[in-house]
Amino acid sequence: MPTLKSPGLEQYYEVDDFTDPWTAPETILLLHGNCESAQAWYGWVPMLARRYRVVRPDMRGFGRSTPMPRDFPWTLDVIIDDYIRLMDHLGIERFHLVGAKIGGTIARAFAARRAARVSTLTLIGTPTPYRPGTVERIPAWTEEFETKGVEHWARRSMAGRLGDHFPPEGAEWWTKYMGRTAVSSQVGFIATIACVDITPDMPNIECPTLVITTEQSGLATVEENRTWQKTIRDSSLLVLPGNSYHVAATDPARCAQATLDFIERSGAAS
Q1: CATH code for residues 3-131+196-269
Q2: Which of 13, 132, 163, 185 could potentially form a cystine with 243 if both were Cys, beta carbons 3.0 to 4.6 Å apart?
Q3: How far is it, in rounded angstroms, from Cα 73 to Cα 151?
């Protein structure tokens, strides 16, 4: 099991590379969402890894990486530095960055604060840069995690996450999968990273950016997404049909193909 050790953290990661062995492929770094892991990208890997080297880390605290204590001092820069350390370990200087859900929040800050490392940015079903009202919901969420567990929260909120066209057995898989998250990690993460305001980072994103959402996403309307998308200078918005907000999970083939097309267009234009 590949892991990168640093103080207080063993970070699990996977590298998928099915490109022709005589080529030198570019790299895509995939950042998963809350209560997920590298496994969340199962529907993407077959399409991406034939043309690119794909790096899929488990964020600290989640998946097979080290759980974090409740009082861990979460910040975006701590998470970004973990990923930078991993890419340095793998000898990868520049890469295409893809983030889903709150992984897209981290990815936007990443692209803004480490611009020299990011060639393109793709954001799928990600929140607005600031989510009013989130801070006020933290005490209730924390009590739910502490008293009923992460799986209870995942099950209660899964319908909005996956929409009304996802198969019931798939929703059950996602519920069990997300429910394995350590409560200590989730309590600290949701109280900090979910509330962060990355609005100041948006004008500092310099790379070509693709934003993917759905027509009826429960995270934000199309117009709300378009408003923040336009604050990124070189960006475009793709709206897919449906009402899931975790569109990376509900429409992996369409999202992966759109990402591949976007990366290749951006390379041709550079």
Answers
A1: 3.40.50.1820
A2: 163
A3: 24
